[in-house]
Amino acid sequence: MTGYLSTIAATSLFTGAQTRHDEGMERFGFGFTEEETLVARAARDFAARRLAPGAAERDRTGRFPTEEIAELGALGLLAMKVSHDDGGAGASNVGYVLAMEAIAEACASTAVILASSNLASKILADHATPAQRAKWLAPYARGEVGPASFALTEPLGGSDAAAIRTRARLEGGEWVLDGEKCWITSGAHAAFHVVFARTDGDGKEGMSCFVVERGAKGLTVGKEEDKMGQRSSGTAALAFEGCRIPEGNLVGPRGGGYGVALSALGAGRVGIAALSIGIAEAALSAAVAYAKERRAFGRAVADFQNTQFVLADSRTELDAAWLLTLRAARLLDAGERAASESSMAKLFASEACGRVVDRAVQIHGGFGYSRELAVERHYRDARVTRIYEGTNEIQRIVIARQLLA
Ligand SMILES: Cc1cc2nc3c(=O)[nH]c(=O)nc-3n(C[C@H](O)[C@H](O)[C@H](O)COP(=O)(O)OP(=O)(O)OC[C@H]3O[C@@H](n4cnc5c(N)ncnc54)[C@H](O)[C@@H]3O)c2cc1C
Asked: Ligand 1 mean position to 236 CA, how many Å?
């Protein structure tokens, strides 16, 4: 890295949300519990120490953060919302979003691995039998086995989850799965996959949920996708060809898989809202630092009113995104379904994230287009937040449905 670039990179490293937390998020009027503050601090400390330093290198090489994920597992962050009884961190949804933002600010790839692992583990915590929990959840929550995956999307069924074609049939006391999943985060590295398959005819009612362990006979993991951003999250396709798993690997009621998937996705969306905010906070910090440092026409770029307006818009939008995210998280913690509020948080935060990273690149001028600066990575990492965990068109459908009901 050249001298000038390294100065910029050093000044812009992972400072934004820390500052905001130091100033106190309490100004939003949400009092955080001691546990929420603790989980957020643990995540922020880990992110600064273990994730931020290698994020650019992992982005370049696509290396899955195996060791870092193992350490996060040992901290209980792969099973954040799983209760203490099941070995998890027992965090609230608010604690979860605070941690997710901190991780994403340092490394969006690691954040999405956490998001899918937490989605999978929450499903087991909510729907698995005590025996299943003891078998899969306990060692997983202790961080002994690595990440887990949530495998719903298929080549012919993404937004339309009820259109999945993977089938599971009972044969000789075993389930036999045939079909294909795609775009599965941690697909190539997960200890087990929470898989949705059709057991009983077409439509939502015919879907069931299963655990398929790594190395199951008849399961083939495809090569990792070469992606635009979030490049080290180990996204892969899973092929099931006569894949035999024990009858006891059915999670939740037979035919209840659609409800199981939906039950977790609302909270998952709030996590993606926080992940989006984390990426955007990193980009905004970089833009603020650069605007103060860089001079043009004899003045700091920060002195131009346009720069100030652009930064002010970004700060305002991110605070608004936070308010929506915290509202949804609080409602979930109060036991509400909060489908519309979760979708609003994901929709607004991911779109605000897109605007903020774009402005941040612009403030950096030509340097913003250099792979040597983190802002270029944030720009690429941001784009997928409008696509996964339900595209933003699907979020609008959820919001409009409630509005018009
Ligand atoms: C990096 C990455 C990681 C992912 N991780 C996972 C994972 O871990 N597990 C998993 O199961 N999936 C995962 N996904 C898949 C992701 O959830 C899907 O890509 C997403 O839900 C969209 O599905 P699709 O790609 O099939 O798009 P499609 O459903 O084919 O949609 C194409 C376009 O049509 C629009 N559209 C579709 N239906 C409507 C409608 N009714 N009204 C208006 N517009 C509509 C969509 O919004 C989109 O713009 C991941 C995807 C990516 C890119």
From this structure: 15
Q: Are 350 and 356 in contact (CB under 8 A)?
A: no
**Neighbour tally for 321: CB within 10 Å:** 27
Q: What's the helix, strand, coil split of the chain in %, to 5? A: 60, 15, 25
Mean pLDDT of the chain: 93
Q: Which of 166, 195, 387, 389 to mutate to test the pocket of ligand 1 (most atoms within 8 A of CB)?
A: 387
**The two three-digit tokens of residue 191, written as one number:** 């200890």
pLDDT digit string (tens) for 83-113?
999 999 999 999 999 999 999 999 999 999 9
Cα 189 off chain centre by: 16
376 carries an active-site annotation: no
Write out pLDDT tens, residues 282-310. Answer: 999 999 999 999 999 999 999 999 999 99
Please name the residue whose Cα sits nearest to atom 16 of ligand 1. Answer: 388
Side-chain half-sphere CA neighbours of 123 within 13 A: 35
Whether the CB of 307 sits within 6 Å of ligand 1:
no
Q: Tens digits of per-residue pLDDT, 130-146? A: 999 999 999 999 999 99
260 Cα–ligand 1 center, Å: 18
Q: What does the alpha-carbon distance between residue 368 and residue 286 come to, in Å, rounded to a whole number?
A: 10
**204 vs 21: which has the higher pLDDT:** 204
Q: Ligand 1: does its nearest atom lie under 6 Å from the Cβ of 393?
A: yes
